[in-house]
Amino acid sequence: MGLKRFKEIPLKQLDKAPWNYKTDNDELKEKLKENLRRNGQVENIVVREMKGGRYEIVNGNHRFDALEELSFEKVICYNLGEVSDKAARRLAIELNETRFETDRIKLAVTIKDIADEFDLSDISLTTPYELEELEAMVDLLDFDFDKFEEKELPPIDDGMIECPECGHKFKP
C-alpha cells in the first residue's frame, strides 16, 4: 500500500474519475487555463493509486483538463495511496461540498482594494466574474445607503434582489 503524500506525477499516468459529478463549463475552463498560465499550478490534484502504475483523479479533474491543454508534463498530486472507489468518492464529496459561502460585500471590498494595482478587465480573465460584475461590485461600495429610501424590494430570479439605483443583483 502506498504512502499518503505529495508527489509529482506525469500527466500521462493520470486518469479522470468516470464518476466525477462536477459539471463542465467552457467559460470557467478558459479562466482556469488563464489562471494556470499566470500563476502555475498552485492547487494540487488529489489521486488514488490504481493498478499498473496509474492514478485516478479524486479531486481536480477540471484542473487536469486545463493542465493537459496547456501541455504541462507533470503535476503535483496528493497521493491517497490504495483507497477504495467508495472511499475516493466520499472524499471527493467532502472536498467539493465543504466550500464556504462568499460574503459578497467583503469580496467587493477586496476587489476594490486590488483594483488600483490590477485592472478589472485583467481580473475578469482569471476569476468567474465578468467585467460588468466586477464593476458593479465596486460601484456598490460607493452607494450612499443613508440616502437610500427603504422600500420592499421584490425578489427576482433564485431569490436574488436587484438594486433599483444601479441594477446590481445580490442575495439578501
Features:
alpha/beta; three-stranded antiparallel sheet; five-stranded mixed sheet; 2 domains; Conserved hypothetical protein from pyrococcus furiosus pfu- 392566-001, ParB domain; 172 residues
Written overview of the protein:
The protein is an alpha/beta fold and 172 residues long. The chain has two domains: 5-97, Conserved hypothetical protein from pyrococcus furiosus pfu- 392566-001, ParB domain, CATH 3.90.1530; 104-170, no CATH class. It is 38% helix and 18% strand. The protein has six helices and eight strands. It has a five-stranded mixed β-sheet. Strands 6-7-8 form a three-stranded antiparallel β-sheet, with no helix packed on it. It is elongated, with a radius of gyration of 21 Å. The mean pLDDT is 89.
Please sum up the structure shown.
This protein has helices spanning 26-39, 61-69, 85-97, 104-114, 120-126, 131-141, and strands spanning 5-10, 14-15, 45-49, 55-59, 74-79, 155-156, 160-162, 169-170.
